[in-house]
Each structure stands twice: as structure tokens, then as C-alpha cells.
Amino acid sequence: MAKEKKGFNYTLYALIAFILVAAILAATTVITFKSKYLAFNSEELAVNYVDTVAQTGDGYNAYKFTLSSKSDKYGDYIRKYYMYPLIYPGYEAGMDGDAFDALKENGYDTDAHKSDATLKDNGTLAGQLADRMYPYYVELMKTYGWDNYDAVYTNYFNRLVEERKAIFGDDYLSDEVMFTALEANVEAYGKALTGTEKELAADEKTVIQEESTGLYQVKYGEDYKLTATAEPAKAIEDLDAYKASLNADVLKTYGVEIDDISAAATVTVNVTLEDGTVIATVDVNEVKIGNTWYVDNTTTSTAALYAIMTETGFNAVAE
Fold this sequence. Notes:
It is a single chain. By secondary structure, this protein is an alpha+beta fold. The chain is built from 13 helices and 8 strands. The protein has helices spanning 16-38, 42-56, 59-62, 74-87, 97-104, 116-120, 124-144, 149-168, 175-194, 215-220, 239-244, 248-253, 303-309, and strands spanning 3-6, 199-200, 207-209, 227-230, 234-235, 261-272, 278-289, 292-295. Strands 1, 4, 5, 6, 7 and 8 form a 6-stranded antiparallel sheet that branches. A two-stranded antiparallel sheet has the order 2-3.
């Protein structure tokens, strides 16, 4: 029986960036919790992976269902391979712990690199940084989607270093700075697709979020609904050939050895409108390690989903 999951501007004030991040972190906790239990069912796993991307373009959090999160918390993986090399010059993933501790003494996340602007920022400048980074994030989504996370992280964080220095006038950099901007952009991109409702603060006067029309609403109607549905999983019969096609070096960065894989399968997931119209189809490749299934992010393409978001005149900028 098919498995189903049904679902559902960046013109916010500077301080709202932090409100957005708080919402994302809460959502991240839910996704992480769900992924631990969905991983025993290949079809449910595939549906949730595709649905996470389809509903809001959130390939970032979809990685929590994948091999890349097998051994490390996903945030730690990003720190080790993309953040620490920028925060601690000379850092290399897997380096000796004592050598890393020595680098930390003079890292860009130390107080010595904080300007008055950084010390006194109440969130306004941090919001400006997220605001300035957003168009570039959209450009990366149009170019790569989230399948090529290496290109996204490398390009995004290199640009962020430049933009932050221009705004704050110093070299200070931390994982919090980097996650805050990125996750605000991820959230903003999603809201540009789905649209937003007007939200007021506790005083019932201050507007903390304006109403906006999402690009999905423009394309599919104000009350659109996307549904991700899995076809029965198909076992990959020639497991040895599949494993031989994988990049062992990439898997090692996930803490995975090719021989750890005991089975593989492909689950076709269709994303449909309420009237049954299929708007995208994704073949999700999965591998099994122990009793747990993981989306093989090295061979699964979500390009069909991002194609929906980046059609002509459809650039993830809310009205």
C-alpha cells in the first residue's frame, strides 16, 4: 500500500532573522527525531525525504535522512568540513586533537577579532547579513539545488565571510554566525514558496511577519496541497555492482565503509497536487546498514523538485 504524507519574502525586519532561526531549530529537532524511527521503513523514509524538499525547498534539513548523517550529527559534519577550515586557519578534518586545540586559541571566533560593531550588535547587523546573503542563496539553489551540498556550502560560506566583514568591519567568525545566516535563508526560501500569514507580537500591534503570496500559490492556487506518495520499494538486485559504483572516499567522511551496506533499494516517490496531477517524480536510492535505511544522497537526485521552484519567473522571491 502506498505511503502518503500531506502538507501545506524574505521581507522581514532585521531582528526577525533570529525568530526564524528559532523556528528552524525547533523543526530540525522534529526532523531528527522522526528520522530515527522512519529509517526502519524504506518507503516512509523516502516519502519524508522528498516531502521535506518538495514542501519548502528544504534540502538542507532533508540531509538528516541520509548517509551523511549516519555517524555524525549533521551540524557537526558541516562544522568539520566547511566551517572550521574558515574559522581556524590551518584546520583539517581529522587532525590531531591537541593540534586543533592549539588552533582554537587564535581562531576567528575569539574575542580578539570582535569589533565594536560585533560587541554591540543587538541582532540588527546579523539580520542585515542574512538579508544580504539571501539573493546569493537563491542563486545557489537555482544552480545546484541541495544535491551538490559541497558547492553550496563552499560558495555560500566563502561569500558570507566577505559580506560579514563588509558589514561588521572585522574578521570575527563563528559557527553560530554561519548557521544563523544560512538557516534564516533556508527558512526564507521556504516561506517564499508557501507564502506567509500576517503575524503580530504579543502586543497585538507590532507586525513581526507580513502577509505574502508564495510562488506555489501563484502557480497552483491559494489553497494548493502537495502530497508525496511512494511506490513499492524495488530491491537493487546486483548489490555488489551498486556498491562498486559508490565513492568510498566520500562515504568515509560519513563514517561509512562500503562493506557496511547489506542491501539497497530504489523507492519512486511522486509529488502530486490535490487533483492527482503529478508535478515531480524522484527515484530515491537507499542503502541498509544494520537494521536502518538511509537515503543515499550520493546517487539520489532531487533536481526534479528544484526545477519546479526555478521555472521561468519562479525565482523564490515572494511578492
